[in-house]
């Protein structure tokens, strides 16, 4: 019987969450995945590989200990691409195993093959051996994600000029790397390779980077990158990328400058993976970047029984938000109640150092004309920071002067992506500066920075109220 309640195309974060949610509600679910193993971009080429690579690089270089033992300190003197890959393969195997077990115990069926539309309720699936089958679904969820943007003028060769998928397969670590695109992917990999002592140059046509992050945090971050000799060519376009006769790469910028390096990573955005779905047979159309538009509350496309979730619907394109979108889409699709997610979600950039943020930036607060006060804590002011040998790290809290409520939390430094959740909870529970001033925090912890920042803002807010 090839009839299902829900057909899910793609087994990344949104597809897997949707499938399990529908199965928990007693529905018959089939996940179609074209990749060799389930897990999607998140498990095989995106989130998990890049974060595992980061962790391995930080461990093998002894990065976290350098505050004590100096910049030359290394746990392993010669680090190879194989050293980095070994841990990656173990982590990926584990992720896939957990996911396959989740599917099995929830009776979610999965099939390997490439799906495309025959009509709004029917998919054709082409298996690896060429066999074609047809399946029908009362509802269909497109959770197909994205693939790297690969323009024709970049001479990709999979060895010296690469996209972010290919970077995971390199045989040798480059001594010099140029990263084209200072988005999240470009910056994460640029800083990971810089931690491995690769000489890194970042190029982006925009004069600023990570514009959705609070400016003060980006300034602190940029200072740290320049301090360790990373070259940032912002506001400059890479016009030509060529391989030199000596096995290197040459990048000509529109300013006339030429950069010579061993390897180029092109990371200038991603395209929705919708080109082979035969969308027109379902009455759907993607935009110029291959993305689908949906109702942001239900994740329904313009065709009522077809849903889309995850990166294929665009911003914020995170594994974390994709999971939630998938879950909501599945609930709506099978007629269950689906509550809107809380307003504030965190954004974590796993660069070296980490950045994490939740709520409004200072720039957004100003734009909205909200009277505000900021509290700042530096990790080097905390006892935990002393113990860990941290000489950098910054936590910034923004409060409304009128309501005293927390409006935003912005962190750069060790543990930022974990620490941010304290701020997220206070934000979504509508907490005020008093939460930080009156509560006791474990000591010594980096979380104590919340207390310090809360007191910092609270002192000035107290004075302002007294004057008023
Ligand atoms: C380098 C990198 C680092 C990242 N780091 C983070 C991070 O630290 N934190 C974070 O939250 N997010 C991160 N992301 C983003 C995160 O990976 C994505 O938001 C997430 O994977 C999107 O999930 P998705 O459900 O849209 O599906 P995806 O994970 O994109 O998977 C889609 C799946 O659909 C399959 N598919 C596509 N078309 C078809 C078809 N026609 N038939 C069958 N199967 C098909 C694909 O093979 C793929 O397996 C990162 C992304 C990249 C590239
Ligand atoms: N930690 C995380 O949560 C995480 C990590 C990695 C990726 N992601 C997600 O993956 C998505 C894709 O990331 P991304 O970094 O590829 O894309 P992006 O859109 O965030 O950044 C692309 C960058 O490339 C630049 N650019 C655009 N065209 C260019 C060109 N022709 N030449 C040179 N530079 C150009 C842009 O100015 C921009 O700075 C993001 O939306 C992000 O949310 C998330």
TrEMBL record:
A Gene Ontology molecular function term of the record: NAD(P)+ transhydrogenase (Si-specific) activity
EC numbers for this chain: 1.6.1.1
Q: Where in the cell is it found?
A: Cytoplasm
Q: Does the keyword Flavoprotein apply?
A: yes
Q: Where is the FAD/NAD(P)-binding domain?
A: 4-326
Q: Which residues form the Pyridine nucleotide-disulphide oxidoreductase dimerisation domain?
A: 346-451
Q: Which keywords accompany this UniProt record?
A: Cytoplasm, FAD, Flavoprotein, NAD, NADP, Oxidoreductase
What is its cofactor?
Answer: FAD
Q: Signal peptide: which range, if any?
A: none
Give the InterPro entries listed for this entry.
Class-I_Pyr_Nuc-Dis_Oxidored (IPR050151), FAD/NAD-bd_sf (IPR036188), FAD/NAD-binding_dom (IPR023753), FAD/NAD-linked_Rdtase_dimer_sf (IPR016156), Pyr_nuc-diS_OxRdtase (IPR001100), Pyr_nucl-diS_OxRdtase_dimer (IPR004099)
Tell me which domain of life the UniProt entry assigns to the organism this sequence originates from: Bacteria
Q: Respond yes or no to whether keyword rRNA processing is given for this record.
A: no
The family line of this record is: Belongs to the class-I pyridine nucleotide-disulfide oxidoreductase family.
- Tell me the function of this protein: Conversion of NADPH, generated by peripheral catabolic pathways, to NADH, which can enter the respiratory chain for energy generation.
Listed name of the protein = Soluble pyridine nucleotide transhydrogenase
> Which species expresses this protein natively?
Rhizobium herbae
